[in-house]
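Subject: Interface between my chains keeps coming out wrong

I've been trying for a while to get a sensible model of this assembly. When I model each chain on its own everything looks fine, but I need the whole thing in one frame so I can look at the contacts. Pasting all components below, labels as-is. Any help appreciated, I'm running out of ideas.
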Amino acid sequence: METTTREFKRCVVVEASGRIDSATAPELAAVFDELTEEGKCNLVFDMGGVDFISSAGLRVLINTQKTCQRLNRGRLVLANVPGPIYEAFDLAGFVALFDFYDGQVEAVGSF
Amino acid sequence: MSQEQTRVFPARYESLTAIDQFIVDAAERAGFAYCTVYQVQLAVDEACSNIIEHAYGGEDRGIIECTHRIQGGDLTIVLRDYGQPFDPAAVPEPNINADLEERAEGGLGLYLIYQIMDEVTFDFDSQAGNVLTLVKRKEDIC
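Reply #2:
Try treating it as a single job with all components included. I did that and got this:
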């Protein structure tokens, strides 16, 4: 897995590519933790390059969403989620917990 | 006619990528649709992660023996480990309708395995090891 982070005026975009599994989920958690600890809680996670995400990765997203929404500090939204991954979000009952956007521009524009 | 292949992987998280490739090859050879291949990948990744984390209690404490068998269009995957047995019935089912703050950390992997696979069988034997058998039928369209 590789990640890149870009800061916009109203939000931060995290792009990831590759596999997010038990081996790599801690790296993703570290990226989000660093941002939220700096008070950056309006976050876009662009999953366009993600090939695979297991429940270890889903837990990172849930924990980040909890941190962001606590005290109404912000929210984590998802962009470019590949079809099979969206299906997995649905199976896990995660669809109601995130806003999904077809493109990064729309996601950034939601803030 | 059936085709069967077995490989042994060290029980560590880095092995998940190689196990995944082994499973993708089989699921594609079985003629599964793209989205079904992904679901099988997810179920097997969850099962292997659970073996490392729970059966062995950490990385590099044993092996995962992985067998896939294609028969009549169905794909059977057998995962064997020599760690601690567990009672799948004792793992509480996650509430997938709970509010954000009430979402629990555990149990999601096992829940996904049961949701995705058509047959899920656990066998525990002190000699033969713990054997998890997963079956996915080809006619399933996700």
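Reply #3:
Confirming on my end. Helices of chain A lie at 25-37, 55-69, 83-91, 104-109.
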